[in-house]
Design brief:
This protein has one domain. Helices cover 0% and strands 39% of the residues. The protein has no helices and six strands. It has a three-stranded mixed sheet, with no helix packed on it.
Length: 57
């Protein structure tokens, strides 16, 4: 619910396609996530933590 922040597991984004879809998130909730990009050469450092809020529906 409002006010509580959920830290999501670290995400490895395979490049290309430079995108990631989060599934199973709750509506009207606060989340925090960090990501890194991964390709055949290796992986980048993790990004800073990013906070975001999901809409009510």
């Amino acid at each position: 619910g409002p006010g509580k922040k959920v830290k999501l597991p670290d995400v490895d984004v395979v490049v290309p396609p430079f995108q990631h879809v989060f599934e199973g998130l709750s509506s009207y909730s606060n989340y925090s996530v960090r990501i890194r990009c991964v390709n055949e050469v290796g992986s980048s450092p993790f990004s800073p933590w990013v906070d975001f809020h999901t809409p009510e529906a």
